[in-house]
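Pilot study result, target chain (330 residues):
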Amino acid sequence: MPEVRYAAAINRALADAMTANESVVVFGEDLAVPGGPFAVTRGLLAKFGAERVRDTPISEAAIVGAAVGAALSGLRPVVEIMFMDFLTFAMDALVNQAAKAHFMFGGQCSVPMVVRTPHGGGLNAGPQHSQCLEAWFAHVPGLKVVVPSNPADAYGLLRAAIDDPNPVVFVEHKALYASKGDLPELPEPVAIGVARIARPGRDATIVTYGACVALALQAAQTLAAEGIEAEVIDLRSVQPWDHATVLDSVRRTRRLVVAHEAVTAFGIGAEIAAHVSEHAFRTLAAPVLRVGAEFMPVPFARSLERKYLPDGADIAAAVRRSVQKPALLT
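Predicted structure:
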């Protein structure tokens, strides 16, 4: 299989979807000619023309609002918001309109739109360009939220998101754009809401998504040298998330660590921890542990940001604490 960059996989998914369906349109700030701030959409204008690939004014509210109207009118818009932080300007259109329209109109319409947006730190972009806000949108009924960790899943999940009749927030970690991975000539479809086991294990389960998957795999490799075999589950989708795969793994390993780059408080990890505690408590041999960022804005300085962001060592340390905890059950 050819190896491609994460950003190139997204570009190919957009091009293939636009070729397959003329109702797919792409627009956003500086998206057409330069290809967006990370050049992900570069080349689409030349292939599909200005009617389907459009630059917009610098107004996230206008971009997402136009996408809602376009979706309700029969198009399948894919819009780009330069940084996830800027979705704060589009909350009404996304949360109150896109997410609610199908319900409020009695199922007589759908809103098939995708909002692509990068999140995460590692580039020293400061507290207003580095946040991981996926938990906000996972909390809203009517929205789906996916966070791919590798090129093949980025391609497959974006194709699934574009085909979906509901609004999807498609989250891309900035630090992943240059990463490489296999992408088949004929990629397999990836269903929204289905996790994958990135590494099998018997002693503990690590549940994560996005850029933290690579960190979890690093941690698992370190732990394996110590005789601890950790199973790593890549959620791929955080709304809906794959309850069955997670619960099955936890019932086998009896221990769970949930890791994400977002702040730990009130995050995706808290929801998964609560669900597992409710549905698999009797199988747990140790408390569910969470790994995430400190409850503070993302630091600008490189040295501070490095300490702020969770890493593989943090995940490995949490697994060790879980394995070393006295059994909860006799």
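One observation from the pilot: Residues 3-182 form a domain with the Rossmann fold fold (CATH 3.40.50.970). A full batch analysis is planned for the follow-on phase.
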